[in-house]
Amino acid sequence: MRLRFAPSPTGYLHVGGARTAVFNWLLARKHGGVFILRIEDTDRDRSNEEHTRAILDGMSWLGIHWDEGPHFQSEGVERHKAEALRLLAEGKAYRDFSDAEAVREEARVRDMHPSRVAREQAEALGPEEAERRAEAGVPFAIRFRVPDGETRFHDLVHGEMRFGNDDIDDLVILRSDRTPVYNLAVVSDDANMGITHVIRGDDHLSNTPKQVLLYRALGFPEPVFGHVPLILGEDGKRLSKRHGATAVGEYADEGILPEAMINFLALLGWSPGDDREFMTLEELIDAFDAERILKKSSVFDTEKLSWLNGKHLAVKPSDQLVDHIRTRLRGQSSLRQELLDDQAWMETLLAVIKPRARTLDELADQARPFLLSDLAYEEKAVEKYWRKDPDAALDRLGRVAAAFEDADWSKEALEERLRALAEEMGVGAGKLIHPLRVALTGNMASPGIFDVLVILGRDRVSERIVEGVKRIREA
Ligand code: GLU
Q1: What's domain 241-315's architecture?
Q2: What gap in Å lies between CA 300 and CA 179, rounded to an integer?
C-alpha cells in the first residue's frame, strides 16, 4: 500500500488536514505500507514557504513521520504538461481558443454548461484550423473531452458511486498560460508515485469522477478512493475558526500531548468497533481499518480532547514531562528556579500531581504551589480551616510540627505519626490534615497530604508551618 497526504500550503496544519494525515498514516503503519508527503504548491498565489514549514512542523509535532518526501507538486509541472499534450495528441482532449466571457454568456442564454459550448466551438473550428492557429501562436487552453456515459467507482467509505458524465464538464487541464490544473496534477502525481489508496476529505468527492476519467484516459491504474466525512463544530456546522482553535499548533501550545491529539483525531470519523476511546498509538495502529471509517460527520468535541489528554498524561512517564513543565515555569520570578533543575525532585512531583491534570498547562499550574518562594493562600481555604477557629488551628499545626520533628521523612512514617497524634487528641485525621494543607499548599485541595509532605521535604514543611502559624496569629 502506498498512501499520501497532499496538503496545499495555503495555511497552517488544521485539524481537518491533520485528521486526513492521521488516517493515511495509520493505514500505512497498519499494513506495512509507505506514507508519502506531497505538498501541493501549484497555486502560486496562495502557497508559501511559511505555510509549508507550518505543515511540516505540525506533522513533526504529531509524530507522523513520512517515509517519502516531502515532494512538491510544482516539481512535476513539465510532466503534467506532457500529459495534457499527450491527451491532446491522442484526441482525448482539444484546444479551446474561445473567449471565456463570450462562452459563459452563450452558455447562459442557451442554458447549457460552458464547457459544452467551448466543445462545440472547437468542433466547429476543426482540427486543421486549430493546428494552424496554434502554430501561429494564438493562445489556447486544453480541455479534456468527457466521454458519454457514466463514471463509476468504488469508495471505501461510501460504497458504489455513480456520476452521469453529462454532469461533468470538459475540464480545462492546461490553462492558456501553460499551467496545469489541479485535477490533472493530482492524477499525474498520484500515478507517478504509485499511490494505491487515496484517502481524503469529502470535499474532494466532486473531483473524483473527473480524476477517474483522467486515470482511464491516461491509461494509469486507478487507486482505491475513500472520502472521509467532514468534521463539524459542536453546533453541527462545518468546523471553522468560529468554533475556536483549528490549528494543530494551538493545541500543542495549550499543552495537549501529540499522542492524545492522534487518538482524538483517529476517533473523528472512525471507531474501533468496540467502546474503547482511550487508545495508545500501538492500539490504534493495530485496530485501524478503512472499513470502519464512518459515513457520518463527526463533531469536534474539545471536552473530549481534554479528557483524552488527561488519560494520556496519566500514563506518560514523568521523566518525559519534566521538560514540558520546565519550559512553562522557567523564568517566573515567584518560583524557586533551582527546584526546576532538580531532575529527581521534579519527577517525583510530577508523578504525584499528574493524575489530576488534563493538559500540560494544568500540570504546570498544579506544580506551581510546590515551587513558590512565598505561598499564596486561597481565601476560601484560610476562612474555612484557619479563621473559623484560629486557636484550634494553631494548636493542631503546632502539635503536627512537633510530631514530625524527628520522624523518618517517608510517606508511611509521616502518616503513622499523624494518625497516632489524631488518635491521641481524640479527633479525626482530617482535623489535622486540613489546616496543614492550607499551610503547605495555600489551597483547599491538593494531592494526598503525605505526598505533599514528601515532595516539599522536611525543611520547607517546617518553614511553611512556621509561616502559617505567623499568618494565623496576625489575623
Ligand atoms: N491538496 C488538496 C487539499 O489540500 C488535497 C488533494 C488530495 O488529497 O487529493 O485539499
Answers
A1: Orthogonal Bundle (1.10)
A2: 38
Q: Using a 6 Å cutoff on CB, does residue 15 contact ligand 1?
A: no
* CATH number belonging to domain 379-474: 1.10.10.350
CATH of domain 2-71+183-230: 3.40.50.620
**Res. 43: pLDDT tops 90:** no
Give catalytic status of residue 241 as yes or no: yes
Cβ–ligand 1 contact at 40 (below 6 Å): yes
Distance of alpha carbon 111 from alpha carbon 283, whole angstroms: 55
β-pairing, 197-201 with 172-174?
Answer: unpaired
Instruction: Tell me, in angstroms, the distance from the centre of ligand 1 to residue 14's CA.
Output: 13
DSSP 399-458: HHHHHHTT--SSHHHHHHHHHHHHHHHTS-HHHHHHHHHHHHHSSS--S-HHHHHHHHHH
Q: Does residue 137 sit in helix, strand or coil?
A: coil
**Is the CB–ligand 1 distance for residue 189 below 6 Å?**
no
CA of 13 to the centre of ligand 1 (A): 13
Grid cell for residue 11: 495555511
Q: Give the model's confidence band at 433: pLDDT under 50 very low, under 70 low, under 90 confident, else very high.
A: very high
**H or E, element range at 327:** helix 322-329
Q: Residue of the nearest CA to atom 7 in ligand 1?
A: 6
Q: Is the CB of 434 under 6 A from ligand 1?
A: no
ω into 70 cis (within 30 of 0): yes
- Exactly one of 30, 237, 241, 316 is catalytic; name it: 241
Tell me the average pLDDT across 163-182.
95
> Which ranges of 112-257 does DSSP label H, i.e. alpha helix?
114-125, 127-135, 182-192, 208-218, 248-254
Backbone region of residue 301 per phi and psi (left: phi > 0; alpha: psi in -120 to 50; beta: other values): beta
Residue 345's contacts (CB-CB under 8 Å, 6 or more residues apart) are 339, 455
Closest ligand 1 atom number to CA of residue 40? 1
**pLDDT (0 to 100) of residue 241:** 83
Residues 337-366 have a mean pLDDT of: 95
- Under 8 Å between Cβ of 142 and 84: yes
Q: How many C-beta neighbours within 10 Å does residue 428 have? A: 11
- Whether 204 lines ligand 1, by a CB cut-off of 6 Å, is yes
* Cα 405 to Cα 409: distance, rounded to the nearest angstrom: 10
Q: How far apart are CA 209 and CA 164, in angstroms?
A: 9
Query: What is the reported pLDDT for 42?
Result: 86
Helices 360-371 + 449-474 axis angle, to 10 = 50
Instruction: Give the predicted TM-score (pTM) of the model.
Output: 0.90
Ligand 1 centre to CA of 427 (Å) is 68
Instruction: Note the pLDDT of residue 44.
Output: 78
Ligand 1 pocket mutation, candidates 8, 72, 74, 202, criterion most atoms within 8 A of CB: 8
